[in-house]
Amino acid sequence: QTTNKWSMAAAAAAHGPKYDNKRSATMEVKTLTDGVALSAHSALTITFRDRILNVSLLLSEDELAPLFDGAAWAGTQLWDAAIQGVDYVSDKYSALMQAPGCRLIELGCGTGVPGMCCRIMGAEVLLTEQNQLVALLNQNIRNNFAGDDAIQAKTLSWERARSRELAGENGGGFHVILSCDCVFAPLYGRSYLPLAESIHELLQCSPGELQGGHGNGFTKPLAIVCMQRRNGDQIDKFLEHFSSLLPPATYHVAHQVEVDQKTGGGEMKPAKIEIYEMYFT
Fold first, then answer.
1. For residue 71, what are the CA distances in angstroms to 7, 97, 185?
2. pLDDT digits (tens, 9 = 90+) for 149-183
3. The whole model's pTM is what?
4. CA Rg value for the chain
5. Which of 18, 105, 157, 268 lies at a CB distance of 3.0 to 4.6 Å from 174, suitable for a disulfide?
6. How far apart are the C-alpha atoms of 243 and 241, rounded to whole Å?
7. Which residues face 179 on adjacent strands?
C-alpha cells in the first residue's frame, strides 16, 4: 500500500495562460494494488475533511467485458481533474454545499469520489454514470454512506430528455451540475456533444431557491466542469458546441492549475487542468 499526496508543479508556465500551482489541501489518497491486470489499483482510501472513504475500483465479472471499450475502464480511475474539482468546490462553494436542500448532480462520475466529497460537505448528491458502472457506485455508497438517502446513483446516458427526467425526479432540478474529466475525444469520441447538451438542459431546469445564510437566495443552476488538456482532447470543440446551443448560456474559465503527472516512462510531466463555470445570466 502506497501513499500519494497529489502534488502540483513547482512553478507556473512562463508564457500562455497562467496556471496556479498549489498542493491539494483537501484530499489524501492511498491506493491498494492487488495485481489485477485490468486496473492499476483495486481500491482507494481517501481522507477528506477527517472523513475516510473506502472506494472499490473493481467491477464484477459480468461487467468486465465493457472495460475493453476504454470509456468504462476510465470510469474506474480517479483522475487529477476530479481531485482539482473537489479542491475548487471546497474552496469556493463549501457554504453553498451546506445550504439546506442544495442538490448536486455529477455527470460521468466514474468512481463518484467528487460527488461523495460534496455529500460530506452537505449537499444532496445524485451520481450518474453508464449502466455498467452503477452497480459499483451503489456498492461504494453502501460502504461509505450506509442509511444515507441523500446520496444515490442512477444511469444517465447523456441526452436532453433523460437529463430533464432526472431533474423532475429530484425537486425539479439541481443547484450544481458537476463534471470532471469527461472530455477526451481519443477515448470518449464525440460524446462531448451530448455532454454539452445535457449540461445545457440541466441549466434550464428550476431547482428552487435556497434559503438561509449559506443559500443566500441562490436560484439559478451552476455547472462546474473540470477538464485536463491533452493532445487531441477536443475541449475547444466542446466549448464551441455549448456556445452554439439555444437559448445561449455563458461560460468562463474560473480556475487553472498545473499538476505533476508521471508518464509511462516514469518521468514527471506537468499537466494543465482547467475549471469552467457555466450558467444562464
1. 26, 29, 10
2. 999 999 999 999 999 999 999 999 999 999 999 99
3. 0.85
4. 18
5. 105
6. 5
7. 107, 225
